[in-house]
Amino acid sequence: ITGNFANVIHGLNANHLTDQVIQRSKRMILDTLGVGLLGTSTEVCHKVTQYSKIYSSDISSTIWGHLDFRLPPLYAAFVNGVAVHSMDFDDTWHPATHPSGAVLPAVIALSEATPQKKKISGLDLLLAFNVGIEVQGRLLRFSSEARNIPKRY
């Protein structure tokens, strides 16, 4: 099952994105960026930003709302993900999860860390975003723990 799943994901390309998927993805991304920028003003985001300042690297990515502050991609994705989730207005689906808040910060951090000569296109970013959403959704489907989340809360 895992090998088949990996092969399907690996075989995806931008041609698999329909116009409807592209439009919905853009809306999800815009919503996530808006919620994330609002979330940069929260106390929890300030705390993880301060904590993450101890990390540095030759490769860095932007911290949303802080043009003068960059972090290694892993920590930039973490801080930006906290910003998105801190307001709890980011998108959700059933079973309970917030797909874009986990995927978009990682995709953007990695795209910024990509060397200039290998920069990805906007369509590549949309593909990566959708692959991340798809992987998350399928992992939820595979999980017996995720099936009863609404009943537990």
From TrEMBL:
GO molecular function, one term: aconitate decarboxylase activity
One of the GO BP terms on file: defense response
GO cellular component: mitochondrion
Pfam families assigned to the protein according to its UniProt record, in alphabetical order: MmgE_PrpD_N
Entry-linked SUPFAM superfamilies: 2-methylcitrate dehydratase PrpD (SSF103378)
Domain MmgE/PrpD N-terminal: 4-147
Cited Gene3D superfamilies: 2-methylcitrate dehydratase PrpD
Top-rank taxon, per record: Eukaryota
Family, as annotated: Belongs to the PrpD family.
Family annotation (PANTHER family): 2-METHYLCITRATE DEHYDRATASE-RELATED (PTHR16943), CIS-ACONITATE DECARBOXYLASE (PTHR16943:SF11)
Stated name of the protein: IRG1 decarboxylase
